[in-house]
Write a structure and sequence with these properties.
- Keywords: Signal.
- This protein is mainly β.
- It folds into 3 domains: 82 residues, no CATH class; 90 residues, no CATH class; 79 residues, SH3 Domains (SH3 type barrels), CATH 2.30.30.
- It is 13% helix and 46% strand.
- The strands form 4 sheets. The protein has an 8-stranded antiparallel β-sheet with strand order 18-17-21-20-19-16-22-23. Strands 10-11-12-13-14-15 form a 6-stranded antiparallel β-sheet, with no helix packed on it. It has a 5-stranded antiparallel β-sheet with strand order 1-6-7-8-9, with no helix packed on it.
- It is elongated, with a radius of gyration of 24 Å.
- It starts with a helix and ends with a strand.
Length: 316
Amino acid sequence: MPGSDRLYSRYSTFRRLAWLQTSLLLAFACLLLQPSHAKPAEPTTLTPENGVTAEVQKLDELNNYQLLQPDGSILILGRIDQLEVDDFNFDGHTDLHVARTQGLNTYDQIYLYQPAEKHFALLKIPEDIQTHLLCDGFMNVLIFKQLDGSKILRSSCILKGADATHFEDFQFDAQGRLWIFRQYASLKRQLPETLLPYTDLPWGVTQMLTAFSPEGKVIQQQLTSRALEPITFKALTSGLTLRDSPASEAKSVFSMPKNQVCNLIDFDAETLTLQLECRAANGQTYRGWLNWQEAIDKHTSARPFILTEIGSAKLY
């Protein structure tokens, strides 16, 4: 691989800086895994609407609790370590979130206020999306505010060893039905070491973003960094070819001009190919596979032919 040793040495310092930046982002993200307003469980009064109250009551010193419903009926909550009062389905009414700690995670239950019946009911994940779940139900739940100001329900689970985390985002439709909106799955496979000089992924670990329609159809898949930022590639030389499969004899679908920016969709470590999605100047979108070895052979300068951007971090 011409120039790869020089490039690896030249960019090792930048990789360490990128590693530090991403590590700080991950540490901050881990702080966000716990509900932002969660507190140790204690007797609490809820007022979901004017003139309506409910009470969380402690039963014993083992942290077993019950909910005294507005109509006087009892709902057993079991052992809980944390509780949070907030609007979890974004309908304007106060709901109850309780959590039980186990290891690095919390196992959560959410009780939504039903204004018509004036009582609280357990929020259940619909059976048709349970098979898609990465985590064991609701875990480490928090209300997540997106860049556009909208709110979603985020669940996450820290995997054994605390070196990876799955994220699952939920929304509610107009009828109040819960649906899975987006997932970030931590991948075990990594970008090969030989490709790292051409990227600012310091350790090669990635997440797979999968987005769903309200009907449960997969509408997008794309790799992201562990900080959940999209990974984009910019070609610093012209003539790089996207093909319709990783095979060397595959048909060409798009010839990338210099400075073309593409999203990284997936990669094949065995064939050293990357699946990219590129939007051409005419607005048309092309998806295909880029052969790394072919691209490296075309690039003769000491700089890498690819510029990878993760969030605001850039390597030149």
